[in-house]
Amino acid sequence: MLELLDGVRRMRQRGLPLELLLFDGDRTPGATRDHVMAEKVMARSARKADSTFVLLMGNLHARKVKGNPFGGDRDYAWLATLLPGPLTSLDVRGPEGSA
Question: What is the mean pLDDT of residues 12-32?
Answer without folding.
Answer: 81
